[in-house]
Amino acid sequence: MLELKEIHTYYGLSHILFGVSLYVAKGEIVSILGRNGAGKSTIMKSVMGLTPPRAGSVIFQGDDITGMKPHLVARKGVGFVPDDRRVFADLTVGENLEISERNTEGQNPWNKKRAYDFFPPLRRLDNRKAGFLSGGEQQMLTIARALMTNPEFLLLDEPTEGLAPLIVAMLEEQIVALKQSGLTVLLAEQNQRTALKLSDRGYIIDNGAIKYHGSIEELRADEEIRRKYLLV
Ligand SMILES: Nc1ncnc2c1ncn2[C@@H]1O[C@H](COP(=O)(O)OP(=O)(O)OP(=O)(O)O)[C@@H](O)[C@H]1O
Fold first, then answer.
1. CA angle 92, 149, 167 (to 5 degrees)
2. Cross-strand bridge partners of residue 187
3. I need a labelling partner for 152 at 20 to 30 A (CA). Which of 29, 89, 106, 187 fits?
4. Is the CB of residue 17 below 6 angstroms from any atom belonging to ligand 1?
């Protein structure tokens, strides 16, 4: 469904991604694991066209979308949950959801009701300004906003970072539910426990290059590689 072929991405003169290749098949949850600053977010932004790769290609559902503008990538069915949990602080939770609603003509489209059924804690916050939410509530809202665009593919950048264990467990369950509903997910994670629990396959990135790729069973069994490249 998504394939990156040897992409090189820069911030100005800084060369950040060095020939990153990966693929995600329809229906999979694939994790990119790596330490702080390894390049996980830059991979996500390269797919979204926020930091277009200067070399290599991004193929989505057979189309070359390398360097396509972010709103057009979104229109193709890619939802993005960035790691900064950006919401419109002055709008209510309900308004944040309503203004994100798109592509509602398919079967069982996401709307406010479905979003509240999916994240029940958000329902009672319908009228609350989003700037007053807790970190966990904000993360639910950020994910729900991405879902309101009815994506087929979701880029999730460190969704559980800095959240309390109970919220992390709830989000993990919901990510699995999204997969069961037919969504394909590329997940960036520093937290290997979450990645090992949810994913079908994993990539390890270090210093902007892929160092390892395997099934989650292989990754789980390979303690040496995890110790070398990940936080333990
Ligand atoms: N806007 C920017 N301008 C310049 N350099 C940047 C910018 N954003 C990120 N970088 C650098 O790019 C490298 C990769 O960052 P990236 O955010 O992709 O890492 P990450 O693996 O997602 O880590 P984190 O968990 O901290 O988000 C880092 O060295 C970072 O300092």
1. 60
2. 31, 156
3. 89
4. no
CB 11 near ligand 1, within 6 Å? yes
Q: Would you give per-residue pLDDT tens digits along the chain (232 residues)?
A: 999 999 999 999 999 999 999 999 999 999 999 988 999 999 999 999 999 999 999 999 999 999 999 999 999 999 999 998 888 999 999 999 999 888 777 778 899 999 999 999 999 999 999 999 999 999 999 999 999 999 999 999 999 988 889 999 999 999 999 999 999 999 999 888 888 889 999 999 999 999 999 988 888 888 888 888 886 5
**CATH, domain range 2-77+152-229:** 3.40.50.300
Residue nearest to atom 25 of ligand 1 (CA): 36
Q: Tokens standing for 64?
A: 């070359």
User: 190: Cβ below 6 Å to ligand 1?
Assistant: yes
The residue to mutate among 8, 9, 16, having the most atoms of ligand 1 within 8 angstroms of its beta carbon, is: 16
In whole angstroms, give the CA distance from residue 86 to residue 143: 10
The total number of residues written for the chain in this structure: 232
- ipTM, two decimals: 0.94
Cβ of 16 closer than 6 Å to ligand 1, yes or no, is yes
Q: Is 162 in the pocket of ligand 1 (CB under 6 A)?
A: no
Q: Token pair of 222, please?
A: 């390979």
Q: In this structure, which residue's CA is closest to atom 24 in ligand 1? A: 36
Q: Where are the domains of the chain?
A: 2-77+152-229, 88-149
Residue 198: strand, helix, or coil: helix
